[in-house]
Write a structure and sequence with these properties.
- The protein has 426 residues and is α/β, with parallel strands linked by helices.
- It folds into 2 domains: 31-63 and 334-425, Aspartate Aminotransferase, domain 1; 68-331, Type I PLP-dependent aspartate aminotransferase-like (Major domain) (Aspartate Aminotransferase, domain 2, 3-Layer(aba) Sandwich), CATH 3.40.640.
- Helices cover 35% and strands 17% of the residues.
- It has helices at 8-15, 53-56, 65-77, 89-101, 115-131, 153-156, 196-205, 229-241, 294-301, 317-331, 335-350, 379-388, 410-425; strands at 32-36, 39-42, 47-50, 106-112, 140-144, 177-179, 209-214, 218-219, 225-226, 245-249, 273-276, 288-293, 359-365, 368-373, 391-392, 399-402.
- The strands form 4 sheets. It has a 7-stranded mixed sheet, with helices on both faces. It has a 4-stranded mixed sheet with strand order 1-2-3-15. Strands 13-14-16 form a 3-stranded antiparallel sheet.
- 46% of the residues are buried.
Length: 426
């Protein structure tokens, strides 16, 4: 096939898959030439204010000089070496930072390529832990409805089986247990009835559970739902009572997005296994990590066993150097004040949406603002309307939401909010 005369945009449309879209009837794409700060520059010169942080990862914006410097310095030394039988300072420094930042008891770090793989690793850790601690029959997982944990197979098996994106694979996915979605909002008064479904399932099935897995406080791609911190605290208590491991997927929520460094801090609890990714590198390169307690690590590795996972690009030195620079930027910035400022601006700015007959709900937590519509969004046309407004906002399902970079100023944030209000209320 001769494709030399095609424009690169046409070649893309004809030959390249994009996330959750079709090759025969693809959604429109917008050609990006460069990105800097909170702006994406199209090839036609148009600049768009980024309201997505490139799927929640680019917390420092784009083209940050400190991260660019880290890239240049590490590239001059080495971009990659295998992690089997080799170690290096960028990985060691990053592991140390993660152990210091994450909740108490998490002492061991496994690096991987992406969030989905980090979840896969966490679930395999739980399974191997049970296999090596005389719990060979413990091979199921318990989670809550409305969740999303990624697109690999173990991860898909704990995504919502009804409203999730993976019903096509139901016949081949492992069958796990799903408690009712928590109904109490983050700031509502707690209702003790909310935990009943989960309590019943863990009581009935703890003898076959390898672990409980859920997204703490914020259910992300499964519906952008913010639930009550007491729910998570009681989940931790029930896991302790029935001796079941707790995995927390902090890939979307970690590194400040909800107003605390990790969302589980809202509940004052620590998991047995935690997954992090996305903002770990400030959205500059793919990297994720799975952290575990010493108890879990020793349970897996006692009696001369090894953990059976080893990605080719595990502990990639370039990615680790970027992550180190990103975490230093975050920790040395007034990120908590920025999140508080963004949260207050979102709360005030999105309030007019509540009065619209098109809108079912408005909710804000940290640097996350969500407008839930009563009807599904036409993604292609709505996206085009946002681009005309000079903003990059990518809705899905019934949800139009904002997750801007932490560095966004009030003027740019207000333009994002105004575009959301105008398009969701007309």
């Amino acid at each position: 096939m001769n494709t030399s005369k095609q424009s690169w945009q046409q070649f893309d449309a004809d030959h390249i898959w994009h996330p959750y879209t079709s090759l025969t009837n693809p959604l429109p794409t917008y050609s990006i030439e460069s990105a800097s700060g909170v702006r994406l520059k199209l090839t036609n010169g148009t600049e768009l204010i980024d309201g997505m942080s490139s799927w929640w990862a680019a917390i420092h914006g784009y083209n940050h000089p400190a991260i660019n410097q880290a890239i240049a310095e590490q590239t001059a030394k080495m971009t990659h070496v295998m992690f089997g039988g080799i170690s290096h300072k960028p990985a060691t420094a990053l592991a140390q930072k993660l152990i210091e930042l994450t909740p108490t008891q998490l002492e061991n770090v496994f690096f991987s390529d992406s969030g989905s793989v980090a979840v896969e690793v966490a679930m395999k850790m739980a399974l191997q832990y049970c296999q090596n601690t005389n719990k060979k029959e413990h091979n199921k997982f318990l989670t809550i409805r409305g969740g999303y944990h990624g697109d690999t197979f173990l991860a898909m098996s704990v995504c919502d089986p009804v409203t999730g994106m993976h019903s096509l694979f139901n016949k081949v996915l492992q069958k796990n247990y799903f408690a009712d979605k928590p109904t109490r909002r983050f700031n509502e008064q707690w209702n003790a009835q909310d935990i009943n479904s989960f309590k019943q399932l863990i009581r009935q099935h703890h003898n076959e559970l390898a672990a409980v897995i859920l997204e703490p406080i914020v259910q992300g791609a499964g519906g952008m739902w913010f639930y009550h911190p007491e729910y998570l605290r009681q989940v931790r208590e029930l896991c302790d009572k029935y001796n079941v491991l707790l995995i927390l997927d902090e890939i979307a929520t970690g590194f400040g997005r909800t107003g605390v460094m990790f969302a589980c801090e809202h509940s004052g609890i620590s998991p047995d296994i935690m997954c992090v990714g996305k903002a770990l590198t400030g959205g500059n390169i793919s990297l994720a990590a799975t952290l575990s307690t010493k108890q879990v690590a020793e349970g897996i590795c006692n009696n001369n066993h090894v953990f059976m996972h080893g990605p080719t690009f595990m502990g990639n030195p370039l990615a680790c150097a970027i992550a180190n620079a990103s975490l230093d930027l975050l920790c040395n910035s007034p990120w908590q004040q920025n999140i508080t400022r963004i949260e207050k601006t979102l709360q005030i700015g999105l309030e007019p949406c509540r009065k619209s007959p098109n809108v079912a709900d408005v909710r804000v937590l940290g640097a996350i603002g969500v407008v839930e519509l009563k009807k599904q969004v036409n993604q292609a046309t709505t996206q085009a309307e946002f681009v005309k407004q000079g903003v990059w906002i990518r809705p899905f399902g019934k949800l139009v939401y904002l997750m801007p970079p932490f560095i966004i100023d009030d003027k740019d944030l207000q333009q994002l909010i105004s575009a959301v209000v105008e398009i969701t209320t007309k």
